[in-house]
Amino acid sequence: MAIKNGKEYTDRINRQQINIWYQGKTIKRPLSSHPAFNGLIKTQAEMYDMQHQKKIMEQMTFQSGTDGERYGLSFLAPRSKEDLVRRRIMMELWAEKHHGFLGRSPDYMNTTLMSLYTAAHLLQEYNPEYEDNLKKYYEYCRSQDITLSHAFIQPFASRLSELVDEVDDSITAKVIDRKENGIVVNGAFMMATQAATCDEILVFPSPLPSMLEPDNPYAFAFAVPNDLEGMTFICRESYSGSSHYDHPLSSRFEEMDAMVIFDHVFIPRNRIFYLGNEEIGERLFSEGNFHSHAGHQVLTRYIAKTEFLLGLISKLSDEQNIALEAVTMERISRILTMLENLKSLRLASEIMAEPDSKGYYVPAKKPLIAATMQYSSFYQEMLGMLQDISSSSLVMLPSETDFESDAGDFIRLYLKGQDTSACDRISLFRLTWELGVGPFGGRQKQFERFFFGNTRTLSSRMYNVYSLDKYKAMIDEFLHRGETH
Amino acid sequence: MAIKNGKEYTDRINRQQINIWYQGKTIKRPLSSHPAFNGLIKTQAEMYDMQHQKKIMEQMTFQSGTDGERYGLSFLAPRSKEDLVRRRIMMELWAEKHHGFLGRSPDYMNTTLMSLYTAAHLLQEYNPEYEDNLKKYYEYCRSQDITLSHAFIQPFASRLSELVDEVDDSITAKVIDRKENGIVVNGAFMMATQAATCDEILVFPSPLPSMLEPDNPYAFAFAVPNDLEGMTFICRESYSGSSHYDHPLSSRFEEMDAMVIFDHVFIPRNRIFYLGNEEIGERLFSEGNFHSHAGHQVLTRYIAKTEFLLGLISKLSDEQNIALEAVTMERISRILTMLENLKSLRLASEIMAEPDSKGYYVPAKKPLIAATMQYSSFYQEMLGMLQDISSSSLVMLPSETDFESDAGDFIRLYLKGQDTSACDRISLFRLTWELGVGPFGGRQKQFERFFFGNTRTLSSRMYNVYSLDKYKAMIDEFLHRGETH
Amino acid sequence: MAIKNGKEYTDRINRQQINIWYQGKTIKRPLSSHPAFNGLIKTQAEMYDMQHQKKIMEQMTFQSGTDGERYGLSFLAPRSKEDLVRRRIMMELWAEKHHGFLGRSPDYMNTTLMSLYTAAHLLQEYNPEYEDNLKKYYEYCRSQDITLSHAFIQPFASRLSELVDEVDDSITAKVIDRKENGIVVNGAFMMATQAATCDEILVFPSPLPSMLEPDNPYAFAFAVPNDLEGMTFICRESYSGSSHYDHPLSSRFEEMDAMVIFDHVFIPRNRIFYLGNEEIGERLFSEGNFHSHAGHQVLTRYIAKTEFLLGLISKLSDEQNIALEAVTMERISRILTMLENLKSLRLASEIMAEPDSKGYYVPAKKPLIAATMQYSSFYQEMLGMLQDISSSSLVMLPSETDFESDAGDFIRLYLKGQDTSACDRISLFRLTWELGVGPFGGRQKQFERFFFGNTRTLSSRMYNVYSLDKYKAMIDEFLHRGETH
Amino acid sequence: MAIKNGKEYTDRINRQQINIWYQGKTIKRPLSSHPAFNGLIKTQAEMYDMQHQKKIMEQMTFQSGTDGERYGLSFLAPRSKEDLVRRRIMMELWAEKHHGFLGRSPDYMNTTLMSLYTAAHLLQEYNPEYEDNLKKYYEYCRSQDITLSHAFIQPFASRLSELVDEVDDSITAKVIDRKENGIVVNGAFMMATQAATCDEILVFPSPLPSMLEPDNPYAFAFAVPNDLEGMTFICRESYSGSSHYDHPLSSRFEEMDAMVIFDHVFIPRNRIFYLGNEEIGERLFSEGNFHSHAGHQVLTRYIAKTEFLLGLISKLSDEQNIALEAVTMERISRILTMLENLKSLRLASEIMAEPDSKGYYVPAKKPLIAATMQYSSFYQEMLGMLQDISSSSLVMLPSETDFESDAGDFIRLYLKGQDTSACDRISLFRLTWELGVGPFGGRQKQFERFFFGNTRTLSSRMYNVYSLDKYKAMIDEFLHRGETH
C-alpha cells in the first residue's frame, strides 16, 4: 500500500545509515531506541497507524482517480473547496494527536511538496527536465509515503560573505561542480527540524542574487535521501524527558533540530528541481502558493494548540480554586476570542479559496497571513497566563521517582490539591512546567515567535498582498464632499 | 410607500413638538436648522434617500411576500442565510455613507426591534396582549419607516437605591400607576443617543429584581412617540462644527446624546410589551437573539470604520513622507490583520448561522462576541497610530476662515506638503484632529470602549456561551496516556 | 522692582500692538478680555503675583549678590546643589498653581534662557559681540521679568526643500539680508505655544547644514519683541471654555499655539546671538546643558500633573463606588509607582548634579532623560484609567446653564451620586471630560507624546549619553571564566 | 575569625548529615561533589572568600565597636545613612559576583535576620525569653557566619483546611506538643530555596488566625540546624549543567529548591522566637521593617541583573550585526531607562532613610516597593528582547563536546559570526539560551514574577503605605475655585 504504517515508518528510520552526531559522538544504535528520538518516533508511528484505522481511513487518505491507489491525504492537490475541507479534517485528526506541538508533523512537508508540485509546469520554461523531476519526485513521495524534512536557513556568516567573494571563499551553500549525471554541492543548513527522523530531505535555500546568471551557483533546489556520502547531521542537545509523568510533552513531541552539512555531496540529476537562476525558486514558492497551502496546515496546528492551552488553563484555574474569579473569566474569554479569530480566519480561507491557473484550489491568503501575524503574541499571552496562574507551584515539583520513594508519603500528603490527589495535581503542573519553564516549552515559544519570519518579514508579506489605493480614494472622496480652497 | 425618503424623515422630526433643552434653553426652531442637529439630520436624510435610489433599491429594501409592500431591509426578519447576506449588504451600503461613525444608524434600532419581534411568541405565556402589542408595533414601525431611539441606562444613584426602598423614594424608573387603558411611568434614562432626531423611543430598562413579583414596578418595556405629555429631553453640549472643511466628521455625524425624563407619563396600553416580571425582559433579549442580530450590524459598522482608518492612515503616511519606512509597513499590516479578523468573524457568523425555534436565522454568536471583545482595543491602537504619525501637525491647524483671510497666503505657502497644497494637507490633519484630539473623536473612543459593556460584562458573555468541559477532558485524556500513581 | 506682578504682566500683554489672526480675523481688543486668552492670562497673572506674596517671596525670588536687586528665581543660574533645590521648590510652587497643565509656564522659558546664558562664553570664539548680546539679553529679561515664548519648528515642506535650492526658493526661515545694524529674516515657525501672551519671542531654529559656511543663511538665533514690523501671528481655534464649572481646565490653562511669520523682519544687531554657522547653535544647546536644565523643570511639571491625576482618579473611584475593588488598588498603586519613579529620578538628578566648566551646577542628565522617555506612556496609561473608570458617565454631562434652567431639578435629582450632589458629581466628570474627551485634553496628550521629541529622538539621546563598553566587557569577562575552544 | 571563608563554608555543608532526597534517592556523598549542588557551592565559596580579600575586606566586613571582632557586613544593623551606603556597597560587590542570579545570596538572609533583630525588643511584651532568644540567635549567626535559608510557604491544601478543623486533621504546620525544654512541630514547607546548601533554616510561616488564642498552634517562629531528627528535604530536579561553556549560568548559580518536612521535630526552647499569637509575627516583620531592609538588598540584585542583561543585549546586537539599527537603539535606551529608574529608586531609599524607634536606619519604603512593583515586567521585557534579537540562533546550538569532536571543524566553519569565532559566537547564544529557553532561565522568570508576592499583594502593599487624602483634597480645592450650584 502507498500509505505506510507506524512500523514501516520506524523500520525505515532505523535502517538508514546516516552520519549523525549527538553531544560529540556519532549515534550507532537504532534511533527508535535512543532517548533523544524514541518519544517522537513513537508518536509519529502512531500517527502513521491512524492512516490504517478503519474508522478514519476515509478521512486520512484518498483514493486516486488515476491508479486507484490509496494515498495520504496531505499529498492531495486540491481541485475544489471540498478538497480543502477534506485536507483540513485530515490535518485536524493528526493535530488532535500531537495537539499542535509538532511543527513538522508529516502533513506539513507533504503539503509543502504538493504546493511546489502544483507549480511544476513553470519549470518547463527553463528546462523540461526540471518539471519532470519535480513531478516524479512528488509521485514517488506520495506512493512511498516518504517522510520529508527540509533545509533552507543558511549560516549567519554566509549572509554577509557572498557578495564579497562570489565563488571561492563564501560559506554559502553552492554548486561547486556540474557533471553529466548530477551536481556536487557544498555547504551547510542551520536548522532542519526532525531531519534525523525523516527518510529524505528537501533542500531549498532562499535564492540569493548573483551576478553570474544564468549560472548562479547559489540558486538550486533538490531532494535526496538522508544517507548520501558526504552528508552529516549535528544535533542540538535533547530536551526530551523519558517519563511521561515528569515530561508529558517532551517525552512525546520533542522534535530534534539538526545542522545538515553537505560536504561535496553528489546530487543525482533526476533529483534536481532547478539550477542557476534564483528567479525560479521565488516563482515556485509564489506560484505554488506555498504560503497559502502551508498556512492552511499551520493555522490548523495553531487552533489545536490553542485548544490544548484553553483546556490546560481551565484545568489549572479549577485546581488553583480561582475558577469563579473575574480575572479567570477574563483570561478564558480572551483565549476564546483568540480561538474564534483563528477558526474564522481558517473558515474564511476555505470559503474564499480560488483556483489557480491550473485549477488547483488555493486557500485565501489574506486570512492566513493574518493568523500568522497574530499567533506569536497570542501564544505568548497564553504562556503568561500559565505563569500567573501557577505562580510558585511551578517551582517545587517532585518527580515520578519521588512518588515511588520512601519520601512518597510526604508528597502525597502535602502536595494534594483541594479535591485532587497529589499525583493528579502535580501532573498538571508538570505539564505546565514543560510549557512555561522547561526547555521544550522555551524552544516552542521561540519557534512560534519566528515560524514564518520575524515581524518585519510578516508585515511586508501582508502589506504586499493588499492594494491600499481604494482605501485612500475613499478618504479623498470623503474629504471632497466638503468645500475646497 | 412604506419606505420614507430624506425629506419625509426631516419633516417628521421638525414637526414633532418635543420638550428639549440645550444649554439651559428649550429649542423652538426646527431641529434641521439648529447647528447641533442639522449635520446629522442631513446625513441621515441622505441615507433614507438611498432607499429610493434605483441602482440600490433592491439591496436597500425588500418586497413583502404578504402584502407586496416594499419595506426597509433592516426590518427583515431573516428566514435563511441568504437573508442574512442581504441584510449585511444593506448595512454595508449605509455604513459606506457614514463610515461607521453612526452608532445609531437606523439599521441598528430596526434590527433591535426585529430581534425582539422574533421572540414575541414567548410573551403569550405571560399575556397574549403583550405579544400582540409587540408584533403590531413592529409592523407599524416597518410600514411607517419609523426612526427609533432607545433608552435603558438608569441613573447611577438608582442602582444603589432600589433595594433600600422598593417603591417610594427610589429614583429608579418605575410604574407608579396602572390604569385600565395604560400605565403611568416615572423616571429617567441617562443616555439616549439620537433621541431627538428620532420619531419614537423604545424604553427597555435592564430588569431589576424585586420582591414584589409578579408586580415588580421596575420591570417593563414600551415604545412611545417623543412628544408625549411629561417627556423631557436634556442634551449634552454639541461637538458639531459647522464647516465641513474644519470639522469633516462632526459636521456630518455628530449624534446628540440626551437624558430622557418621564415625569408621570401616561403610556397607552397597546404600546406596552411587558410588565411586572423581570424574567420576561431577559428572555426577550436572549430568545430574540439580540446580541447576535445587533452584533451582526455592529460588526459591519466596525469594519467600515476600520477601513476608513486604514485609508486615513495610509494617506497620512504618504503625506508625512514615511510610506516606505518599516514602521509604516508594520502599522498598515497590523490594521490589515485586524480587518481580516473582523471580516472573517462576520463571514463565520453568517456561514454558521442557524435557525431559531421559529425558523428565523440567527448569525452565530461566538464570532460576533469575539469581534466585540476586541474592537475597543483595535480602535485605540489605530488612534495611537494617528497620533504617532501626525505628531505636532495635529496641533497648529488653521481653519477655513483663515484660508480665506488676508493671512491666507502665508498659510498656503508655509503649510503646503511635499506634493500637496496646504488646503489638501490641512484637510487631512483636520480630519485626523477630529478623531485624535477633538471632542467628537473623544466621545467616539469612549463610545467604542463601552459599546456592548465593559470588559467584565463582555468576558462573562463570552465565557457563558462556551462549555469548557470538552477542553478539560482533552487534558485529562492526555495526562492519562501517561502512568498513574 | 525687577519682579513683576500680575497686573504689570497683563498690562504689558494688552499694550502690545501685535498683528494677530484668529478665525480669519485680526484681534483688536485687549487680549485679556478675549475669550481665547483671558483665562490663561488671569492664571498667569496670579502666578506672577505669587512672586510678591510675603509667605513665599523668599522661595519665588532671589536677591542678587551683585546689585542687591530681587529677581525671579527661575532666572537663577545655579552655583550649587542647594541652588538646584531652590529652583525646584520655586518650580513646584508654580506647578501647584497650574498642576502641570502649562507647558510654557514662565519658568520654562526663563530656564531655557538661563541655560543658554551659562554657555555664552563659547560665542566669544566666533564673535565677542554675540556673547555680549546674549548676556545682556539675559540680564534684560531678568531685570524686566520678560515673559518669553520661543519658536523653532520649521514648516514641514521646508525640511525637504532646503537642499534643492539653498537660497532662493526654499521656504525655510533664513537671513535674506545683512545690514550694518542688523539683519532681515524671512520665514515661518509652526507652533509657538503662548506666543501671543508673551512679551518677546526667542527664535532658535534647529540648525540646518549648508554648503555656504560660514555664511549659512539658515543658521541664526535672536530674540525680539512680538510687535516688530512684518511679524504675523496666526492662531489655531481656541479650546477654551468660559465657565469654570463646565471647563475647569481650559478656562484657566488653555495655552494658545500660533504660527509666527517673519515677513522681511528687521532684527536689530544687539539681539542676534549667532549667525552663519550651524555648529554654534548645537554647541549653545549642548554646552548650555539645555536638556538638563529644562528637563529639571519639565520633570517637576510631570510630577505635579501626576499628582493631580492621582487625586482625580482617587476621587473618581470613590464617586463610582469602586474604591475598595482590587482593580482600583492596582490602578492607584500603578500611579504611585510612576510617581515614585519620577520623584526619585528628580532627586537623583539633583544629588548627582555636577558643575560645568564655568562652575554652574547642572542636574544629572541620565535620570532626566529617563523621566522624559517614560512620561508619555505614563500619561496615556492614566488617561486610559480615567476613561475606564468613568465609562458612560463621561458622555451625558449637563452644563452650568442646565443646572440653572427650569430643567435643573431633574438634573439635581437624577444625576446625584451615592453620597454627592449632582453638582459635585458632574463637576468631577466635567474635569475628567476635559482630560479624556475634550480638545484641551486631546492637545495635552499630543503635547506630552512629543514634548522633547518622538521615541526615536529620545532613544538616540539616551543611547548617546551612555557608554556600553563596560557592560559588554562584563559579559566577556563572565564568559571567559569558562573554558575556551 | 567570625567571617568564614569558602573552604569553611563548604566543609560545614559537607559535614551536615541531612536527610535529603533527589530524584527518589537519598544523597549520601558530599554535596560539593554532587552535580546538582557543586556549581552553586563553588560560587558561594568564592563569595565567602571575598570577605578575606585584602582589597575589599573593609567593604565586605565591619569591626564591632563592642567586641572588636570583624563580622560580615550584611549582619550590620545600620545606625546611619552611611551604614546603609556601606551595606549597599557590600551587596553590590557580592552581586557583581553572581550578577543578580542568586535570589538567596547570603546577604539576603543575613539582612532578614538583622531586620527581625532590630525589632526584638517588642517580644519583651509577650515573653522576655523570646527577645533573648532572637538576640542571641542573631549574635550566634553573626559570630559563626551561619548560612541560613528560610521556610514560610505552606502546602496549597493547608490554606483551605485549617478552618475546617483547627487542630487535628489540618496539614498546616503546627505545634503539636509543648514541653518544658522545647516544642514539637509537625508540617511541611513548600519551597525553601538553597535549603540544602545552608547550615540552618529559619522557619517563619505567615501567621494564620485561630480561635485558640493565645495558644494558636499555627503561630510560631524558630531557627534550627538542618540535621535535626525528623527533618526531611525533598529536592526538585536540578537545572544545572556541568559545563561552564554549555551552561554558563546554571553551572554556577543553580539554587536548588526543596520541600522541607518537619515530622514531629523537637525544637529546643532557646531557638523559639515566639509562640501562640499570630499578631507577634506580623509585628516582627512590620516593626523590623523587613520589606525595607530586604527590599534594599533585592533592589541591588535587580540592578546587577539589569546591568548584566544590558551587557548581553548590547553584545548580541553587535553579534547579530544590528547595533546601528533604530530598533536596537530603542531597545538599549529602554533598558537604560529601567536602569535609571532602579538606581534612582535605590538612591532615594537611602537619601530619605529615617531612624526607627530604636535608632536603626531604615531605607525609605515607597521607592523600594515601587522597584518591586515594576521589576517583574522590566525583566520580562528584557527577556523578550533577547528572544527577538536571537531568533533562530537560539535553537540550533552545538555543545562543548561537539566542538571537540570530529565534527568540530564543520561547526567552527559554519557557525562563526561576522567578526567572531564560532566558539565565541556560540558561547553568547548559549548564555542567552539559558536565560530565554532553558529551565534555569524559566525558573528565574517565574521567581522574579512572584518574588515579593503577586500583583495583588504588591498593589495592596503600595496602596497602604500611602495616604490619598491630600491628593483628593487638592482636587476638591481645585474644583471649588469655580462656581457652585
TrEMBL record, chains A, B, C, D:
SUPFAM superfamilies: Acyl-CoA dehydrogenase C-terminal domain-like, Acyl-CoA dehydrogenase NM domain-like. Keywords: FAD, Flavoprotein, Oxidoreductase. This is MFS transporter. Residues 6-273 form the HpaB/PvcC/4-BUDH N-terminal domain. FAD binds at T193. The keyword Oxidoreductase applies. GO terms for molecular function: oxidoreductase activity, acting on the CH-CH group of donors. The keyword Oxidoreductase applies. Residues 283-479 form the HpaB/PvcC/4-BUDH C-terminal domain. InterPro entries: Acyl-CoA_Oxase/DH_mid-dom_sf, AcylCo_DH-like_C, AcylCoA_DH/oxidase_NM_dom_sf, HpaB/PvcC/4-BUDH, HpaB/PvcC/4-BUDH_C, HpaB/PvcC/4-BUDH_N. Pfam families: HpaB, HpaB_N.
